[in-house]
Amino acid sequence: MLTTLGIDDGDLDAAGLMEEVGIVLSYCGVGLVMMLLGFLLIDLLTPGRLRDLIWTERNYNASVLVTTGFVAQGLIVVAAIWASNDDFGEGLITTSAYSIVGLIVSTLVFFVVDLMTPSNLRRDMVHAEPHPASWVVGTLRIVVSGIIALAIL
């Protein structure tokens, strides 16, 4: 993995280790920021506060939507890191850019599915009763992100 990031792990000294740790932490930071942005987008798309829906009201549908969103976004981040070239700075930029593309496409998928459903998908995704559509939307988001991830590689 370190060789993929442009680091020769054959001669690892203390300074090299610290550099590698910094690179790993930087990519983790980008990944976590993208996960947070994904959470905020879902929060904007659905009625109510997502944080309260999941942790206070224990809403099943909102949990499925957020969980599958994290998996979907994570696929893109992992693929973007794997495909990043030897230039660390450029790798962070491309990882961020591909991740943002994933967030945009995921949002568009949500809107398209909402238009195609006979009810209000936004409301259904936070309804108190479990709704099978939460798994349909979540799975679709994972598959679309898998397509994006494969295109990155």
Description:
- This protein is mainly α.
- It has one domain (33-152).
- Helix content is 75%, strand content 0%.
- It contains 6 helices and no strands.
- It has helices at 14-45, 50-55, 60-83, 88-116, 121-124, 133-152.
- The longest helix is centred in the first third of the chain and has 32 residues, at 14-45.
- The two termini are 15 Å apart.
Task: Give a quick summary of the entry.
The chain is an all-alpha fold.
Domain tally: 1
- Per DSSP, the total helix count is 6
Element string (H = helix, E = strand)? HHHHHH
The oligomeric state is: single chain
Features:
mainly alpha; single chain; 153 residues
Task: Break the fold down into its secondary structure elements and pairings.
Blueprint: H1 14-45, H2 50-55, H3 60-83, H4 88-116, H5 121-124, H6 133-152
